[in-house]
Structures are given as structure tokens and as C-alpha cells.
Description:
The protein is an alpha/beta fold. It contains 8 helices and 10 strands.
Amino acid sequence: xxxxxxxxxPQFRHEQYIMDEVPQxxxxxxxxNNLVCFFLQGAAISAQMMEVCVxxxxxxxxxxxxxxxxxxxxxxxxxxxxxxxxxxxxxxxDMPQHMRKIRIFDIIDLTKYETVxxxxxxxxxxxDLGRLFATCTPEKLYxxxxxxxxxxxxxxxxLQKYTVREKMYFSFNNIYGFNTLQAMFKPTENxxxxxxxxxxxxTGYEGEHFTEQSFMNHVFLTQYSKxxxxxxxxxxxxxxxxxxxxxxxxxxxxxxxxxxxxVVEQQRAYFAECQAAKASACS
Length: 283
């Protein structure tokens, strides 16, 4: 029996999440594939970073247990379209950047997938994603929260319209703003309706310039806080600067700052070092 996610006070410490064997139902040939989605923009380096990320997922995935497909969403101005690997399905859209994650249900037919994970292209996956997908339960949006910060008055974590009552509720229940660089969910109709609420708010919104993160925070924190689960992704997700050595514990997903001049080389070097350390520990 696997550990189930519960809505509780977030645990803000880096730890390796150990879970039991993936349920047999998830291993049957009839099971739907899972989707890993990337949102690309800017220079061609994004496609190169994504290619490395896809390679690390394919290298660590246990063949025959969990199926994974890849998708990339970008607009016609993206410079790296020609560098996208053939294994990645492409979706060219004509909409503002801050609306793409909000409208993922409209861009991609998610009904074909069991679980959806979107991550940054500057990511390295160091362990089998099947373990991460197995933690995902319906009607939850798994996100990476920003612990210990006074986030509620910042543009990137809302629309600066939280009431005093709402802020008190957030504080009392240990609810913090969350980051939308990575998220995981099962594409149910109920969750699609929640994304539609975000779309409704963001469409035609007047005022300061906000990102999808601002709108998603405002809607999910004020209306659907029990839908959020911040206790899982944080156990799997590490920033490169926060994980510097390999002992008996290994990182699961590591994100590199995309603005580094040699980020692709750092991705490859880190993955090789991690795999070598794991092999040494097992020998």
C-alpha cells in the first residue's frame, strides 16, 4: 500500500521520499501513458535544455512499468523549434505566454493521459519518474511552494488583492504562495473546471502585468486551497544550489538556473555524476 498525499502543513525540508512498489494497475498494458510537458520560449537554448531533460527521463525510466510521452508548447516566434527531438510532440500556439499553462486542457487532449507533469526544460531527472507519478491522486494539484517567505503581497503570488481575512486564513493554515515552474496533476473534469476559473479571471484582466503564477495563486489559494498539495513535489524537487553532494541520499529532480551560460553542460555533468554515485553506492 502506498503512502497517500494529505492536505497538511507543508514539510519544508529536503528529504528523499521512499514509497512502496508501484500499484499493479499502473503497470498493466491497458494503462494510459503519462505526459511530461515543457513550455518553451525565447532562444534555441530552451530546446537544447529540454533535450537533455528528456534524455535523463528516458535513461532512468523503468521500461515496461510506466509509459511516458513528451510534449512541447511554444509560439511561432520560438527560435529553437528545429532542434526539438522527434520524440516530443509539438503544439504551436497563438496566445500570450502567461495563458499557456492555464489553458493546457485546451491546447492538449489530456484525456489520453493518466498523469500530467510540467517541468522546466533546465531540469535533470535523476530517478524513475514512475515513483513520482504513483504518488499523484485525483483532484489534487501538486506544486512547489515557497516556504518561509512573505509571499502574499508580491505580484508573482497573487493579484495584491488578498483581504485581511484571507491573509489570516493563510497564516493560520500554513498556506504559502506556490511556484508554477513545475506542477503535477491527474487531468480530471473537476480540475479542468478549476483551471477554467483561472482562465476566466486572467482573460481580459486589467491592471498590472501578471504571469500565470499570479492568477493560479489567487484562484487556488482563495477558492481551492484544499485542492493543493505541497508536500509531495517539494520532497522530489531540488534546486541545484540546495543539493551539492551525493551521500546515501540522492536527488530526484534537480532544476538549474536557465540563464547560466553553460547550463546544458552543467545538466549533463550533474546527471553523469549522480548516476556514477548511485552505481558506486549499489556496488
